[in-house]
Amino acid sequence: MKKLENLNDIVDSFNEDEDFPTKYNTVGDIVNELISKGSNDEVHAFYDDYLGLENDIDSELLETKIDNIQSNEHEEQIDRIIEEANTIKDYQNRELTEDMQEEIEEDKKRIGY
């Protein structure tokens, strides 16, 4: 599986299975989608570091249009977004074992689903 290397790779990965691609305009749009994708059972039961992502990113960056990002501007924060995207994608794409499915069910019970 190809690692995501930039914000445009993340957007492309969001839209690769979509018949009608969504337009992600800002970094905040990407972060919100990552939080949504991370909240799926196959991710959240095993990984939840993405939950603090929006609070860890400067509001100025969240409001910045993806096309207006300069290559070295906010580099550390963008790297964090890319890292979270890769981690979430890895969890989404792995094949679940029976033990993992049981763990997901336990997690759902623990949080009241």
Description of the structure:
The model has no long low-confidence stretch (mean pLDDT about 90). The N and C termini lie far apart (about 30 Å). Helix 2 packs parallel to helix 6. This protein has seven helices and no strands. It has helices at about 5-15, 25-40, 40-45, 55, 60, 75-95, 100-110. The longest helix is centred in the C-terminal third of the chain and has 19 residues, at about 75-95. The protein is globular and about 45 Å long. By secondary structure, it is mostly helical.
Tell me the structural class.
mainly alpha
Number of helices: 7
The oligomeric state of the chains shown is: single chain
Average residue pLDDT: 90
Largest sheet: none
Instruction: Give the number of DSSP strands.
Output: 0
* C-alpha geometry: globular
Helix content: 55-70%
Terminal Cα span: 31 Å
Q: What would you report as the Rg, rounded to the nearest angstrom?
A: 15 Å
Q: How are helices and strands ordered from N to C?
A: HHHHHHH
What is the strand content? under 5%
Low-confidence stretches: none
Summarize the topology.
Blueprint lengths: L6 H9 L11 H12 L2 H4 L8 H4 L2 H4 L12 H19 L4 H14 L2
Short description:
The chain is mainly alpha-helical and 113 residues long. Helix content is 58%, strand content 0%. The longest helix has 19 residues, at 75-93.
Key structural traits:
single chain, 113 residues, 58% helix, mainly alpha
